[in-house]
Amino acid sequence: MTKVRSASWFLWAGVLLLGSGSCASYTARLKDLRSCVEKGELDRALEQVEHVSEPGDLLYHLERGTLLHYANRYSDSNAELERAEELLEDLYTVSVSQRALTFLLNDEVEACRGEIHEGNYLHYYRILNFLSQNKPDAAAVEARRLALRLATVRDKQEKDRLLRDDAFLEFLIGRLLESKGEWNSSLVAYRLAYRARSAWHAETGLDLLPWLERDILRAAWKTGISLEDIPEVAHLKGSAWLESRAAADSEDGRVLILFESGWVPKKESVHLRVPIFECDPDWDGEEEAVEMGWVLAERCKRYRADGRWADRELAVAYFLDVALPVLAQEHERDAVTCRVQVDPLGSSRPQSWDERAFSTHPGVDLAVLVRHEFAIREASILAKAFARALLKYAAHRSAEKNLGEFAGLVANIAGVVTEKADTRSWLLLPREIQVADLRLPPGRYHLRLEVCAEGSRRLETMSRNVLIRPGGLEVIAWRAFR
After folding, report:
1. Which of 70, 242, 248, 457 has its CA 20 to 30 Å from the CA of residue 25?
2. Between the CA of residue 345 and those of 26, 374, 467, 478, what are the distances in Å?
3. How far is Cα of residue 423 from the mean position of the Cα atoms in its chain?
4. 421 touches 325 (CB < 8 A)
5. What angle do CA 425, 428, 429 make, to 5 degrees?
6. pLDDT digits (tens, 9 = 90+) for 392-423
7. For residue 427, how far is the Cα from the chain centroid?
């Protein structure tokens, strides 16, 4: 039925040696990574990353950068994340020979090129590192670099509303640049954040960063731009406009609480046996295998939809064994939020002060973003996996026909050993980031942060003293693994 160009079984013997190092996927090899972090065993987590990957691998530097951030080793963390950024730029051009080899082995042979959100959020952690080192100027520079990256993403993803803009990151850029007195740039960032928030609400129903309109109004007042020139807030007049003018001229400072919780969905490997029917078209060589891969991807999609491979009974010629990546199902978990109690210290207490409490609001749901990006790429991932499986099957049959049963057995074993789904992704990203935006008069304050589940059940607490300077900005990032 299928015509196949002959392949030397000696090639497949070499493939067997190349692929025999590890059959486990990236996620399986790092199955204990997250639990180590949750227990505070950061040295052990670093050892796991170093055992699985090596310098020059994108995820090696992303995972290490995150772990070193958790360990308060901010300079070391930034060095790793800077290397990750350099690799992302280099990986846009990958050799043809390397990419072709993935058809014979598995996708992990090709260098991991990362996802869009991964390239964005490495800048987020670099900003946090600079702020933790009390380097606000460096954090502002990093915010501008992030703004340039987001502009590039916007140009490339102009039709995808979720990938095109990131409301949380644009808001963070705006807040950092506002604190440096760069009102024009902050206004641009706030407007982009507002548009992204609207897109996310339309696509997902999530209501992110509810105060963005006031941010735009305040920045507009400082830059002298009228409401009529800003369509996002042209409908806001009266008290909102007057309040924003007062806020822009006040000496109040800001405290930004960034509350990270949970884990992004990780990829897992599943094996699937897909039927090749006797009526399927003949294929010969790599190009035809790729075309047949798309046919099988549609077949798999149908099977997932209604449990049938075809709309009628068809004779099966043989089955293909394929390893495919899937996103793991998320376990049921309590919805958590962060509650912030604010209390002035000593002489900072205003006479009219009552105890104030704030709660965080959704900033970004990275789980939604991860699933969206995966869904976009899933069809091409399936097609490539099936094409690879077809080529391995072809090599097995060719070796068996031309060089005997033993050669066919070797080729078959090589195909099995090297078959592995690509489950690589940045495992240490949080599931979501929530935000509280506090405006406070200058002075010293004691902040008590509480992680609360549904029903106000308190799970964790953390305290911090802050000094608020006129027009200043303090950023507190807190990571919870709930």
Report:
1. 70
2. 49, 48, 10, 22
3. 13
4. yes
5. 85
6. 777 655 555 555 554 444 444 444 555 578 88
7. 9
